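Anti-sigma K factor RskA C-terminal domain-containing protein (Solimonas marina), 245 aa
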Amino acid sequence: MKYDNVRLKQMLAAEYALGTLTGAARRRFTRLLQTRADLLIELRYWEARFAPLLASSQPVPPRDIVWAEIERRIQRDTVTSLPTAVPTARPRSSLWIWQTWAVAASAAFVAVSLQLYQRQHAAPAAPPPVVAAKPPYVAMLSLNQGAAVWTVAMNPDQRRISVIARGDFGADTRKESMELWLIGDDGKPVALGIMPVTGRGSMPMPAGVTMPAKPVIAVSREPLGGSPTGLPTGPVLATSPVVAL
């Protein structure tokens, strides 16, 4: 399934938030939420959008006839206990068969016990090394008192940065660019890429860029194509701490 399709992601996230996404599809989407920050952002958007509807809804108790039907089906499906078998005497001619079986069973028991003892006292195998996955990071940058918002998701493992732009950023994309910066623990900004001002965008994380202990991102207004110096040259429009999911 192509989870990079924008329309598909919106539909799946909306159905997941409503609870109508069930079965294998819901389990698969739940697993994807652990590694796909863009899907998690989409889910949070729909949860916030549906919250007023869910808060205003009232629980509807089932009718009495429904409970009666449930009880009837439970009684119908109750499994009756099986009758107790009456033991019968074994003929003498089969006595040697049982004796032979007892000897074979004893030998098998000894062999299995020996194998279990050897396994329990054998040196345990070294477990394979576990490589911890780096968590995705999310931040929100707000401009013009919330009139425009960027939602930024950073995935260090996939080396991708996903951005959702909503609102009016007041940018003239023919003359200027909005550039994204990562500010490390030393306070030095590192250029990450050009931000979209409408819809969605994606950019690779530059080679060598790692997430600091307390990451912060910022956006500055730069000449078309980005800063010519590798450092912010225009006004910083917004900053935000980055949170690990």
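The first strand starts at residue 137 and ends at 143. Residues 6-56 form one domain. ok done for today
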